[in-house]
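[job 4471] stage=fold_predict status=RUNNING
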Amino acid sequence: MTQKFAGVSSSKNATRTPLGVAETWTGKWEDCTAWDSVAFAVKASHSCTLYAEFTSDPTFAVTDSTLTYNIGTFNEVHVLTITRKFFRLRILNNGTEQTYLSVDTEIGSHPPLTAPMNLALGEDADANAVRPSIFTDEVIIGRRKGVSHFNKFSYRTTLTAASGEETVWETTGNLHL
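[job 4471] inference complete, writing structure tokens
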């Protein structure tokens, strides 16, 4: 049985209009005093920056609290506890003209996020990871979005090995395990 939440969709903080180069979309301040949390999902065809903003008084356009997310081409989902009376989303296109942008927001009382065991966790994921997790191992096998591993060893193609490139080591020869 799936757990339902109480809440409403926000038309003030939703859009389907792709952004042009360096263009910004700004949602409308929404009164959230009747609710505990705000959830939003964003997916774009090209990289953009999402700002989740809270304020006590929108008439002065002073943002009391801002959370920043780097959005790629994967679906970003976040649930935030409401910390001020008003909330809005703002999205800045990072450069390339978008062909697709989908932003949905719901204000309500949301259960904690969950994620399938095989889902790659982002650096800013809100879901609690319940699988055993060693961060460096998950980076190497591709289960952490936005992070990549590197190999401290290097190759030289200018060596005269019969088989092509060789691994460069401190000592002579290649390491065999």
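[job 4471] summary: The mean pLDDT is 77.
[job 4471] exit 0
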